[in-house]
Write a structure and sequence with these properties.
single chain, 5-stranded mixed beta sheet
Length: 289
């Protein structure tokens, strides 16, 4: 299954779409599901679960929180009254990262390190050391996004490789619905509900993937879209280099010819070259004194 696990509805400060809009766009993009991760909002969780059931489409529901150390995304194991009533607000307006890890882990949920090196809200190197009261760290790492800088994605991938945690990705769309699914997460397991989604996120059998050209955000650079384009670019580059070399040879030949003419002719008269005199001066320089 392919799921875009970072999408936002109009319940988020910058969100512009309803859940129905996002589901329709995800279906058109041939995604198998999406996850709603509204920022500091989960009071519509039950409503969203009903909409997903009515439209017969898989929707996981989580929440994005800004902790004192950086941004995280959390998913509960079940959509219960505590999550729908935003019980997590009791942790504070800007909760400690350790408290958020404790809260969701104790309830069977997961916590994802989100936008680790993005602007001023990322966790940065705290991703390596963060632990809850029982020594549990993050469950997953967000490694790929089209809106981030290439270096941010590369550093996130490095963090995922060093920690050995699974990698996930999502589009993070708020106001451009055409970007849904540009980045997503590929799951080997079948996912049917919130609990199986959380279990699949705990499993290593899922991977971050890009479903569109990421341009400058691509960690390995921007690949050509087709082999034909690649060959055409190679031919074009080779043609330009060849033309430049030929032009350079012509210009170089003209310059050499001009110097030769100047050396052998001055004021319209042939200039005589006396090799013996020149050699004599060289002999004088090398003669011991």
């Amino acid at each position: 299954m392919i799921i875009d696990i970072f999408t936002y509805t109009h319940a988020s400060p910058n969100g512009a779409f309803s859940l129905e809009d996002l589901i329709d766009a995800a279906k058109a993009a041939h995604l198998d599901g999406i996850a709603i991760t509204d920022r500091a909002s989960s009071n519509r969780a039950r409503e969203y679960a009903e909409i997903a059931a009515r439209k017969d489409y898989f929707v996981a529901i989580g929440v994005e929180l800004q902790t004192s150390s950086g941004c995280v995304t959390a998913f509960p194991k079940v959509i219960d009254d505590a999550f729908a009533s935003e019980d997590w607000r009791n942790l504070g307006d800007t909760p400690a990262l350790e408290d958020v890890l404790d809260y969701f882990h104790d309830r069977g949920g997961i916590v994802i390190a989100r936008d680790i090196y993005n602007k001023g809200e990322g966790l940065k190197d705290r991703v390596y050391s963060a632990r809850d009261s029982k020594g549990r760290g993050f469950d997953d790492i967000d490694t790929l996004a089209a809106y981030r800088r290439r270096i941010d994605n590369e550093l996130s991938i490095e963090a995922q490789q060093v920690t050995g945690l699974p990698a996930c990705a999502g589009s993070g769309i708020t106001d451009d619905i055409t970007h849904i699914g540009r980045c997503a997460t590929l799951f080997a397991d079948k996912i049917s509900d919130q609990a199986s989604f959380v279990a699949a996120m705990r499993s290593p059998l899922h991977w971050a993937c890009a479903l569109a050209d990421l341009g400058n955000a691509c960690p390995m650079g921007t690949p050509p879209k087709t082999d034909e384009d690649n060959n055409r670019r190679r031919d074009d580059r080779g043609g330009r280099r060849g033309d430049s070399r030929r032009d350079g040879d012509r210009r170089g030949g003209d310059r050499r010819e001009a110097r030769r003419d100047d050396r052998h002719e001055r004021d319209g008269k042939p200039r005589r070259f006396d090799g013996r005199k020149r050699n004599g001066r060289r002999d004088d320089r090398n003669r011991p004194r």
